[in-house]
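[Structure tokenization] protein backbone as discrete codes
[Encoding] learned vocabulary of local backbone shapes
[Protein] chain in single-letter code, fold in tokens
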Amino acid sequence: MTITRRRGVLLGATALAVALAATACGSSSSGGSPSSAGSSQAATVSDADLQAALTAGGDITVWAWEPTLKKVVADFQTKYPKVHVNLVNAGTNKDEYTALQNAVKAGKGVPDIAHIEYYALPQFELAKSLANLDEFGAAALDGTFTPGPWNAVKSGSAVYGLPMDSGPMALFYNKTVFDKFGITTPPATWDEYIADAKKIHTADPTAYIGNDTGDAGYATSLIWQAGGKPYTVDGTTVGVNFTGDPGTQKFTAAWQQLLDGKLLAPVTSWSDAWYQGMASGKIASLTIGAWMPASLESGVKSGSGQWRVAPMPQWTAGGKVTSENGGSALAVMQASGNKKLAYAFLKYATVDEGAQSRTDNGAFPATAKQLNSPDFLDKPNPYFGDQKINQVLAESAKEVAPGWTYLPFQVYANSVFNDTVGKAYVGGGTLADGLKAWQDASIKYGKDQGFTVK
């Protein structure tokens, strides 16, 4: 599985969610209470302390599936020869999270650092499994990262991870296919997108502007862009409100038209049929995270020179609002016996030399330095007809709508999306009905686990 494929997978792990929430809402030997989560603390570890730890050396274990970290680890060990980093692929997303939770529960085998996606980070933080990085001065990194990822690693004013990458959304489209159907400019609004979807599918009933069979992350990203705020979180008091959320209503009004008209390919993303649909021109575009280029280049080789990138369609003409779709952080585990060395590696991998190395090797950066670099911005991409696609993607990263929040049991919520909202994608009711069912299921689960849900 590639670095980008993981971001398109529906991530469900009910057993994990149960264990995490039970840990968060029940008694805990670690002290404190769930309501204290997210509080900041003064830095007590200096840069000199971190340098001393690097000089002294030692062993740390990192659980991660992201492939560009292999070179980062090799370079880090060359620079600090007394440090040994054991890089372990413990599985992708939910498989790693299950293994991580099992290790935490057993009290042994917990890595020093774990790779955790933004949507899953709140569950581990609430369960007190992550170290508060404020003690290392992480709060001073405000401004180092783009707003979306930086907000995603914080709980209140406290920092629980450092962003490793990001997924600001954009429209990836096959210009050859668009030209074939007389679409001379990519849709700038979702209304134009719907009109172009009708144009393509009317001209060729086997062709579609895009695909969607129901995905929690994708739906919430579109709601996010529409200004939606269906989730609120204040410690263990949470709110779930899709039915009364204006952004959600914008999304359902538009997407229901696409579903009713059967204007989206009934093909699941990351399947063989998905790649084949893009290769054949039957799927003409994707609205997806900025990490997508590598997957197109490797999975749709025949499309080289045909594809282009444009800003994400807007809900209001003339707007520039985007949202995130995917992305992940590295976090220091509370159980780590070598937190200073672990944080030193974390900073190297996400802020210092490692951030540049990963960008050079195809990861889409979360750091402002890399995003604003002329070398990054002005680099033509042959696959996209030598378009300087990073200019579009970097601009998208700057325009991510603020204020989005994930539930502290988002892993569970996502796992039941297809049982609720997913029915609308196969003709089993409306999106509005499905979102109401998703809301009800999420509220019930939260209450069952001891959260105060409103």
Observations:
- The mean pLDDT is 90.
- The two ends are 39 Å apart (CA to CA).
- The chain has 20 helices and 15 strands.
- The longest helix spans residues 431-448.
